[in-house]
Amino acid sequence: MNRGHAHLATPLARQGGLIRLDRLTNPFGPSPLVARSVTAALDATTPSDGGSDDLFAQVISAVASHAGTSPDRVVLANGTDALIDALLLWRRDLGPFVTFSPTDAAFAARARQHRVERLEWPRVPGNFGIDLAREPAGSRGSTALVMSPNDPTGNPLDPTHLVRLARTCELVLIDERHAAYAGRNAAALASEFDNVVLLSTLSTWAGLDAFPLAYATGPARIIAGLRMFCPPTGVAASTLAAAAATFGDLPAVLGSVRRLRLERARLWRTLRKSNLLSLPYPSSANFILARVERGTAAEIAAALRERGILVHVPSDPSLGRDHFRITVGPPESTVALGAALAEIAGQTA
Predict the structure, then answer these.
(1) What's the pTM?
(2) Is residue 299 classed exposed, middle or buried when 0-12, 13-18 and 19+ CB atoms within 10 A define those classes?
(3) Which DSSP string corresponds to 95-119?
């Protein structure tokens, strides 16, 4: 490893004495170039600046290059919530929004906040694919919001499902905030449609949870609509500086992503060995969904917390009371989790 990137070997999964397997940001943290870039940006700007035009254009170009598109097909925002809000505000009078449960609860929360009609399209139990046989009434003319890989289930969007959605709905937003861990994304297929836009963020795979730049790429007409609600002044100079530093050090950041992809397989094998759990679900994300065979997810999560490990118990009712999500951490986190599960199993035998 390059000596200048040595800090990437020091994971952030353990905080305050706890092993944080409930958070979704890259535990190896951001590029070491981020801190100095942010400091320089703060020294050069005032709190009201929102970032210089040059820095904003630099990040737009970097995102376009990374995504294999042109700058006029990119919009930036201060986090994924801001981009989803922009979509809701732009299209709330044009038709309903369709979400696919179980998924990130923020979709439903943002729709309620903006008083937007939302249709819920259940996923297939077991594999969590989209049930194409149960097209909801009124979905034509609607806007679909779908995660790939999905949170909390970890499965990617099937290409045939994307084609069906693009032909059924007026606009499709694919939230790919976890796609870096999948090794592939929907960009090539999405480019064949004029109504599909991709969303991503540096807060997850690049470790920039403190500077949550989000971006969307897609057809110029859709990007123009989103830009009406995502002005350049909405992104802080510090966030732009952090993003520019990240794209300038991309090989090191993607190296930590690859390490987590390898550790995901080891985590899956660790969970498979526990007789507290059924066979873990396959995952293309930086987390794995597990189903509890003995007790409830809340009980197992509480027992793990007593042993210094935090996991996430989704609130989606379609998952019942027996599922929890474990984020992939560094190897020592996997070892600690395996030991804790074995101890809990021994005490509940």
Answers:
(1) 0.91
(2) middle
(3) --EEE-SSS-HHHHHHHHHTT--EE
- Going by C-alpha positions, the residue among 184, 203, 115, 106 that lies closest to residue 145 is 106
CB contact set of 181 (below 8 Å; sequence gap of 6+)? 149, 205, 257, 260, 261, 264, 284, 285, 286, 328
Q: How far apart are CA 293 and CA 296, in angstroms?
A: 8
Question: Which domains, ranges and CATH numbers included, belong to the chain?
Answer: 9-30+253-347 (3.90.1150.10), 33-248 (3.40.640.10)
Kind and range of the H or E run holding 124: none
CA 160/CA 224 separation, integer angstroms: 28
Q: Which residue has the tokens 């870039």?
A: 37
Burial class (CB in 10 A: 0-12, 13-18, 19+), 21: buried
Per-residue model confidence as pLDDT tens digits over 40-87:
887 775 544 444 788 999 999 999 999 999 999 999 999 999 999 999
pLDDT value, residue 14: 63
Tokens, residue 316 = 């989606």
Q: What are the tokens at 292?
A: 């509890």
Q: Find tokens 């439903």 and name the residue.
A: 108
Instruction: Tell me which DSSP letter residue 291 carries.
Output: E
Q: What one-letter code names the amino acid at 214? A: A
Tokens in use for 288?
């794995």
pLDDT tens-place string over residues 130-154:
987 766 555 567 999 999 999 999 9
B/e letters for 188-216, b = 16+ CB within 10 Å, e = fewer, are ebbbebebbbbbbbbbbbbbbbebbbbbb
